[in-house]
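Ticket 4471: requesting a sanity check on a complex prediction with protoporphyrin IX containing FE. Repro inputs:
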Amino acid sequence: MQSLPLPPICPLPSWKQAARFAKEPLELLTECSETLGDIFCLKFPGAEHWAFLSSPHAARQLFRAPRDHLAAAQIHSRFLGALFGTDATFCLDGQAHKNRQKMLVPLLSTKANARHVSLFRQMIEERVLSWESDRVFPLLTEMHRLSLQFLVRLVLGGKDPQFNAQLSERFEHFSALGARSQLVAMPKLQWNLGRWSPWGKIIHAREEVRSLIRDKIVAARRDRSLVEDSILDQLIFKADGGGEFLGDESLIDEIMNLLFAGHETTGGFLTWCLECLAGHPNIRAELLSRLDEVVGDQPFGPEHLDKVPYLTAVIQETFRFRPAGPFSSFRTVAQPIELEGERGRFVLPAGFVVAQCFPIMGKRADLFPNPESFEPERFLRGDHNAYDWTPFGGGGRVCTGRGLAMLELQVAVATIVRKVEIEPVHEQIQVERCGHLLAPAGGLPVRVRLR
Ligand code: HEM
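Returned structure tokens:
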């Protein structure tokens, strides 16, 4: 294996690679994939090599590699640990990761959360009714807020709405300051020089959120009458897959990570989905007619989940057409791995970082004919294999919350599209970075009209 070559490296000077990666990651990765093939590397100043994979065959090898060859804890902790804490599923490896997953997966499935569908639909309806027609507002902010408030309700329970409102407001503030700060990608500049310094401000906001969650845990441990069946309560009182109970700080780390992982992603996709439907009136009309056939005059309820294949196809096509991030599923190579690409076999030595570029795969004409066209029907034909399209990652670290995410997207898209017509203010939609994700510029300013 040692005699195999390294993958080809982007020929730009490393400072230029870093500058372009910060500003236009998807453009840089697409260019490299076109010129260097489906396995290539970027090299940033003073950092390790980052290998990117942009074909289903390469992604399959990443997701099927033995678990002890690729680690996620170190690289995830480097970027997320300082903000959200490191004792969480995202930042664990090996047996500790498996034990935590065993605990979380059942709590985040579609089935476990179907009983919350009506509650979520009501939250959406209330919010939609608060939108004044002819007022321009950024849809992204509304969708982030909606998915955060729902997640807070699920994770922290519903007995104390005032607490939930306060936590949502503080987490939103922390997220806007922290998760979208350039400092997240620059651990060496994370100096806490007091409350008014850039990193100090972020740490202060983080501690406000942590202390609210801590109060909730302490209260639940002290007074069992406060306990309900929220995700937090279940995490407090159930042992993990290894028979251990989580301590308070570990619980806070896990909750912080869940709120982060679950709200910007879902809120961002929801925005893109509504944007795609606004830009394709024929597809929106088709969706409304398919919803009418299945849901009729009833409100969308748990019995309608996964019963409208066209709705699922619209969501899947949005994942492909408007990818939320430039890449995902990054790991550190713990033991050298060999990869077979379209232009040869390569070795990734220990210490390299590797990630997959599903947005590039989604634009490959050999996998998705006519890739620049928004066509939900392609997902109704079922002619794609599991590695052609991996917005939730894959293998042993596939997104733990994908069931919940698909539930939220179905309920929200079905409810909103039946209530309002959305009209983006700008005809041309520009894409910009929003933290680690890609979002419509300006948060997608829109006007709405009640139907
Ligand atoms: C549209 C919404 C979402 C998308 C596109 C998404 C996507 C992803 C991706 C790409 C990963 C990395 C997988 C990998 O490393 O191979 C991931 C991991 C994860 N996601 Fe999601 N996610 C979404 C919603 C959620 C929600 C709602 C939750 C929970 C509330 C959640 C919790 C997690 C967790 C805990 C992990 C870590 C899994 C692990 O390392 O084992 N996600 N997600």
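Notes from triage: The chain has one domain: 14-450. Leaving this open until the requester confirms.
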